[in-house]
Amino acid sequence: MRTGGATRPGAVLGCGLALALVTGGLCAGCGGPGGPSGARTVTATPSPSATSPEDLCTKVVAHWSRKVLDSHTYGDYQTMGLSNGQYDILREVVDDARAVKKTRGAEAADALIGREARAGCRDWYRTGGPSNGPWG
User: Fold this and answer.
1) What residues does 2 pair with on adjacent strands?
2) Angle 19-23-29 (CA atoms, 0-180°, nearest 5)?
3) Does residue 109 form part of some domain?
4) CB atoms within 10 A of CB 10
5) Considering its fold, how many domains does the chain have in total?
């Protein structure tokens, strides 16, 4: 909003208020739910529920179990983002899944990974999970 090559001070303020209103800020003196001189109330939406430690354990153990199923090594648990306890669960799950894959196929091994990862993590958290020691 230029007049005679200069910006009017009110134009900059008006743009700032419009920006505040668009981004959810409060705009005193603007029309709307709060009235011309009242402040508008913004209601916060609750955040989505957090994933439980057991569910997170199950997801990461199952994910990495599927990744290492066909390899001849397990890799480094730290680069996988696993704790020592989760890595122990993964090794058991993968050993069992390899045996099932040989006898019953990949689909059966995949289903076993989901079940055993869930059971292993459930049992691990039932007995204290990562709080069992420094290497959890």
Assistant:
1) 7
2) 60
3) yes
4) 9
5) 2
Question: What pTM was computed for the model?
Answer: 0.61
> If phi over 0 gives left and psi between -120 and 50 gives alpha, with beta otherwise, what is residue 17?
alpha
pLDDT tens-place string over residues 96-115 = 999 999 999 999 999 999 99
Return d(Cα 118, Cα 122) in angstroms, integer: 6
**Same domain membership, residue 76 and residue 34:** no
Evaluate whether 93 touches 118 at the Cβ level (below 8 Å): no
110 vs 98: CA distance, rounded Å: 10
Around Cβ 26, how many Cβ atoms within 10 Å?
14
Pick from 80, 78, 56, 59: nearest CA to 68: 80
Percent of the chain as helix, strand, coil, to the nearest 5: 60, 5, 40
| Pair (66, 121) in one structural domain | yes
What is the rounded (10 degree) CA torsion for 121, 127, 133, 136? 0
